Every structure is written in structure tokens, then in C-alpha cells.
Amino acid sequence: MVDLVPRAVCLGEAMIMLAAETGAPLEDVETFRRSVGGAECNVAGGLAALDIPTGWISRLGADGFGRHVLRDLAARGVEVGGVEDDPVRPTGLYVKHTIGGRTRMHYYRSGSAAAAMDAGFLDRPAVRNRLVGAELVHTTGITAAISATAAALLDRLAALRDTLGFTLSVDLNWRPALWRDTDPAPLWRLLRAADVVLIGADEAMLFAGTSDPARLRELLGPRSTIVLKSDAHVALALEPGGRRTEVPALSVEVVEPVGAGDAFAAGYLAGTLQGLPMEQRLRLGHLSAAAVLAVPDDHAAPPEPAVRRALLSCSDEDWAGTQVGPGGISSPALVGGAV
User: Fold this and answer.
1) Would you state the pLDDT for residue 1?
2) What count of Cα atoms within 13 Å lies in the side-chain half-sphere of residue 241?
3) CB atoms closer than 10 angstroms to residue 264
4) Has residue 40 got a pLDDT over 50?
5) Which one of 1, 56, 58, 152 is most buried, counting C-beta atoms within 10 A?
């Protein structure tokens, strides 16, 4: 276990990810590569990699997969002392399979330990103590969707925010399959209660019927800073007072897109906790996302601190000339032009 006092706490499920080693039909795949996935734990690892003391809170099965999740996150610098073991329910898992250039995800999370989280979970001393000490608590719409009890937990979390004073961050992470035949009202409540809402333009269209920032402001209410991401194009931050900041995405040779949104969230939130100007928060989000886009896994180490500093403070022209790929970063802002 990592011994630290978390400034940031991420609350939500983690799952074992099994990636098919070949592009054969799934029924013919014989070997899979194991890793740890899940939106909130991805963000927790990304924050820790950016030197933000971070904890992850959830429930896991008291099984080998759950123990691997704890070991993996602790090795990445994430504090996991608030996690509860479930002796009956299993750790969830999903299979990632790429065939014909298209990646599909197959989820096995029904009845998992994480889905059994409820409002009373926040009263556990190990959980409450971490929330009391946190400056920021991050969760996603996936947590609101995995069960009715988890949705009730997030209603309670929003109420505790007003008592405890932490900043509440929510990434929409709209997953239509999880909400099939389910009223998304709990997710709307969560988004309207948040201080930071991270949302992709494509998922905003599916969830809210619009990706227009002004219309999203009307729908989500006046409280939050809305961070609207348009894939490979631009990220826009709309602050409660009306101030807009836009930063174009980097040019990236994409290996695998899964996990990039979580990395962007980690970069943006790290910049927020570090007190960076809004433009640099968005740049750090783009840099973190680009690092993940250039690898086959759901997470990746961010650029080295010196590289981050150079790219966060470089001119718009040098930023536009920066390219990221599996071989590293090339930019006119870097000494020697590449790392």
C-alpha cells in the first residue's frame, strides 16, 4: 500500500482487462494479455503519474483479480487503503478484441463487487476519512450506471461535497448499453451537481442531443466548468463566469484510442490542482491523452517533467508543430527537437 494523504480521490469500479493477443475471431483466440482497466482507476493512475497524491476508492472481489488490481495500482503510486473486499461478489472484467481494425469491448461486470457500492459505503471510516482530506473527488457516469445503489451513492457524494468542501469532478463517459431501459435521471443530477464536467462532443450529442457549449450550459446549470472535448480537434473549457478557453489537440499517430479520455481527465485535473492557467490545464490534458493514444494499453506514463514544462509554456506555433507517436515526441519547443 502507498503511504500518502490523497489530495485527489477517484471513486468507481476497476476491472481486469483481458486483451486478445491476435486478431482472430474471439472464439479462436487462445491467449490474452492481462492488465487493469476502469475509468476512475485509469484517472487515479494518471494523476499519480503527474505527482498528485491520489487515492482510489471502490469495492473488489476477495479474489486473485482483485488482489492484482490493488497490487497494480499501488505500484503506480495510487493509495488504495480505502478499498473494501467483498467475500462473495467477484471483481469485474472485460475483454478487448481487435479484428479487422475495429476494437470491441466485451464486459462481464453484472453482479460485481463494485456494483454493490451503496450510499452507506461512504460512511465507512476508511472512505469517509479520505473524503474529508480530499481537495478533489472524481467519478464518472459509469459509476452511476452500474447499479441503482451506486447511483444512490453518487447522490450522497454530491451532498457530502457541500459539507466537506471538496471539488467534485465528473466525466460523463456515456455508455448507452449500460443505460438501456434505465432512466438516466441520476446521471443528470450528478452532472448538475458537479464543479467540473468533462464531456466529449460526440457523447454529448448522444446523451444530451447537442454539443453546443451554450446549450450544454443551459442543460447542466451554472455551477460547473464544462470541458468539452472534440476528439482530435480541440478542447474547450467554459467557466461559470462565461470565459472560454480553447486549445487544439496535438497531432498523434494513434495506436489505440481506449483510455485516452481518462488520461485527458487526469492531465486536466492535475493542472487544476497545480493551479495552472486554464490553457495549460487543457494542454496537460492533451499531452496525457496523446501518450495513451500512442500505446496499445489503456494507460501510459506521461511525458517527462522537463518535456511537460516546455510544451505547457511553448508558443501556439510550437504547440501546433508538436507530433506524438510510438517513437516519442517531436516538437520545435524541445531541445534537439525530439525525445
Assistant:
1) 42
2) 2
3) 29
4) yes
5) 56
Q: Tell me which H or E stretch contains 106.
A: strand 102-108
List the one residue out of 248, 312, 253 whose CA is nearest residue 334.
312
Cell 449500460 -> residue: 178
Question: What residues are labeled active site?
Answer: 262
| Residue 319 to residue 244: CA distance in whole angstroms | 19
User: What pLDDT score does 98 carry?
Assistant: 87
Averaged over 118-142, what is the pLDDT? 97
Ramachandran region, residue 193 (left: φ > 0; alpha: ψ -120 to 50; beta: rest): alpha
pLDDT reported for residue 51: 96
**Reduced to 3 DSSP states, what percent helix, strand and coil does the chain have, rounded to the nearest 5?**
40, 25, 35
Q: How far apart are CA 94 and CA 92, in angstroms?
A: 7
* Chain mean pLDDT for the chain: 94
93-99/15-20 β-pairing: parallel
Sheet holding 251-252, edge to edge: 251-252, 323-325, 328-330
Over residues 223-231, mean pLDDT: 93
Q: What is the DSSP letter of 296?
A: S
Distance of CA 71 to the CA centre of its chain: 19
Which grid coordinates belong to 3?
503511504
Residue 79's contacts (CB-CB under 8 Å, 6 or more residues apart) are 1, 2, 3, 4, 6, 53, 54, 55, 56, 130
The angle at the Cα of 101, spanning 95 to 107, to the nearest 5 degrees, equals: 20
Sorted by sequence, the CB contacts under 8 Å of residue 19 that are 6+ apart come out as 32, 33, 34, 35, 95, 96, 97, 296
pLDDT tens-digit profile of 229-258?
Answer: 986 789 999 999 999 999 999 999 998 887
- Map grid coordinates 478487448 to a residue: 96
Cβ pair 201, 226 in contact under 8 A:
no
